[in-house]
Design goal:
six-stranded mixed sheet; microtubule binding; four-stranded antiparallel sheet; nucleotide-binding; alpha/beta; elongated; motor protein; microtubule motor activity; Kinesin; 2 domains; 12 helices; Kinesin-like_fam; binds adenosine-5'-triphosphate
């Protein structure tokens, strides 16, 4: 289990016009925790001189200023979350900020240049690249795309519908099981085997979302989830409409950041129910506060930063997901049944007569080899309760022993030859050899004498 608070990052959007830029500064070196200071001029606060604070300071894990590009954002914010997801944890990245502050740009990306692509396409590329590298395991990837608008969920990837408005899309509802796990009814899961397939799904969802233009939305992908929200503004400097989902999200964040609060009102809204694990639960969660620090937006930027400071207090406990694969369980149980049958056959004296297969023989011989090579005197040769296997082991060992004997003899004779060459002969051996030589000499001279006599006789 990994205990971690929600990581908070800030990203400052470049101003549309330079002269509209508000005053702010980023201190990167403040005891290694960077801080962002926003200066709110008195006259701007309420239109007349008052007692409002001028300087507001907020701490973030890291603050990315206007010049930070999409690659930097991905590398520093999304890649670590994607890494955790690949390691088996749940991961969530969400952007939070006022309208026009760069949530879409950060999460999805800009459409103008390839280099402007955002966190989702880059994360998909990265995940598929990593999965391809790992041939030791089997992975399956599924994508779903959920939009929440006014407390209703809509499936943006439903293949049966051509949406011209949100109501054309199937409604997704929340079901809670007895263990309080949340299930999303009607949300389709689509398998993506390649990066291209995953991107096509993303584009389909984006298209459906754009067609069904909404005020508030959220999106969630299994494994890595992203939520975005929007506060619609009707006039400069005024937040006119904070929708219900956002209000409940804030309630949950407040409850979670307060000590000793036992009840967290997740159930009040669909978004907080869906994000239950991401907020204070089993997940590695990261929030990006998107800030538009133009003079007219300073108020809202300050409230975004305040929200982020509360989020930073939320502690999550991410647990490694280890689901039991039923296919593996069946395989294990089949093996266990076979072993029990073998044992029973041995105990009851009932012998199995069919011959061992090539694969079984190969496996057995491999076992014997590693048993013989094992230096541990306690090591055991485990072949199960199958007499055919036990018999085969004996035969194989016998064969190995005979082979070794033959080899052993050859080795001894060749070794002794080597010895002849290398070591000086001992006196005793020398004497014996001299005697043998003498004997051979005698034999040769006797033989040659016999031959000479025979030849003489022929000549005579
Ligand atoms: N870091 C950035 N660099 C360059 N342009 C940016 C950046 N962030 C945002 N923009 C541009 O600013 C505009 C508004 O950004 P975006 O649509 O991402 O905001 P938003 O927070 O998603 O807004 P809304 O809540 O209204 O959907 C877009 O034209 C976008 O391309």
């Amino acid at each position: 289990m990994v205990k971690q608070t929600i990581q908070i990052f800030a990203r400052v959007k470049p101003p549309v016009r330079k002269h509209q830029q508000g005053i702010y500064s980023i201190d990167e070196d403040e005891k290694l925790i960077p801080s962002l200071e926003i200066i709110l001029p008195r006259d701007l606060a309420d239109g007349f001189v008052n007692n409002k604070r001028e300087s507001y300071k907020f701490k973030f894990q890291r603050i990315f200023d206007q010049d930070a590009n999409q690659e930097t954002i991905f590398e520093n914010i999304a890649k670590p979350v994607a890494g955790s997801v690949l390691a088996g944890y749940n991961g969530t990245i969400f952007a939070y900020g006022q309208t026009g502050s760069g949530k879409t740009f950060t999460i999805t990306g800009g459409a103008e240049r390839y280099s402007d692509r955002g966190i989702i396409p880059r994360t998909l590329s990265y995940i598929f690249e990593q999965l391809q590298k790992d041939s030791s395991r089997m992975y399956t990837t599924h994508i779903s795309y959920l939009e929440i608008y006014n407390e209703c969920g809509y499936d943006l990837l439903d293949p049966r519908h051509e949406a011209s408005s949100l109501d054309d899309l199937p409604k997704v509802t929340i079901l809670e099981d007895p263990d309080q796990n949340i299930h999303l009814k009607n949300l389709t899961l689509h398998q993506a085997t390649t990066e291209e397939e995953a991107l096509n799904l993303l584009f389909l969802g984006d298209t459906n979302r754009m067609i069904a233009e909404v005020i508030n939305f959220s999106l969630k992908e299994p494994g890595s989830a992203t939520v975005r929200h929007r506060v619609a503004k009707t006039g400069v400097g005024e937040a006119k409409y904070i929708n219900l989902s956002l209000h409940y999200l804030e309630q949950v964040i407040i409850a979670l950041s307060e000590k000793h609060r036992s009840h967290i009102p997740y159930r009040n809204s669909m978004m907080t129910s869906v994000l239950r694990d991401s907020l204070g639960g089993n997940c590695m969660t990261t929030m990006i506060a998107t800030l538009s620090l133009e003079k007219r937006n300073l108020d809202e930027s300050i409230s975004t930063c305040r929200f982020a400071q509360r989020v930073a207090l939320i502690k999550n406990e991410a647990i490694l997901n280890e689901e039991i694969d039923p296919r593996l369980v069946i395989k294990r149980l089949q093996k266990e049944i076979q072993e029990l049958k073998d044992e029973l056959a041995m105990v009851t004296g009932e012998q199995r007569t069919e011959a061992l297969t090539e694969a079984e023989l190969f496996q057995l011989e491999k076992l014997i080899t590693s048993f013989l090579e094992d230096q541990d005197p306690e090591s055991r040769l485990e072949v199960g309760a199958d007499m055919r296997k036990v018999q085969h082991c004996f035969h194989h060992l016998k064969k190995l022993l005979n082979d070794k004997k033959i080899l052993g003899n050859n080795t001894v004779s060749s070794e002794s030859k080597d010895q002849d060459c290398q070591e000086p002969l001992k006196e005793e051996e020398y004497r014996k050899l001299r005697d043998i030589l003498k004997q051979r000499d005698n034999e040769i001279s006797i033989l040659s004498e016999v031959r000479t006599n025979q030849r003489g006789r022929h000549v005579a």
